[in-house]
Amino acid sequence: MARYELYGDDGTTEGDQCPRCGDVFLADHGDRKHCGKCGYTEWE
């Protein structure tokens, strides 16, 4: 079994995608969500 699954059975995702890049998932760091590709950050 994979460590995590990106897509559910219906094709939806649990992770948020970057609004700038669109094809990259934001990493959840607890107090913020961060895009490793462009550096976009959402603070909680």
From TrEMBL:
Cite the binding residues for Zn(2+): C18, C21, C35, C38
Superkingdom of source: Archaea
Zinc fingers typed C4-type, residue spans: 18-38
Sorted alphabetically, the Gene Ontology cellular component annotations on this record are: ribonucleoprotein complex; ribosome
Alphabetic keyword roster: Metal-binding, Ribonucleoprotein, Ribosomal protein, Zinc, Zinc-finger
Cofactor note as given? Binds 1 zinc ion per subunit.
Q: List, for all copies, the residue spans of the domain called Small ribosomal subunit protein eS31.
A: 3-41
Query: What GO biological process, any one, is recorded here?
Result: translation
Q: Does the keyword Ribosomal protein apply?
A: yes
Gene3D superfamilies hit by this protein? 6.20.50.180
- Gene Ontology molecular function: any one: structural constituent of ribosome
**What cofactor(s) does the depicted protein rely on?**
Zn(2+)
Family, similarity comment: Belongs to the eukaryotic ribosomal protein eS31 family.
Q: How does it assemble?
A: Part of the 30S ribosomal subunit.
Name of the featured protein: Small ribosomal subunit protein eS31
The organism named in the record is Natrialba hulunbeirensis JCM 10989
Per the UniProt record, the lineage of the source organism begins with: Archaea, Methanobacteriati, Methanobacteriota, Stenosarchaea group, Halobacteria
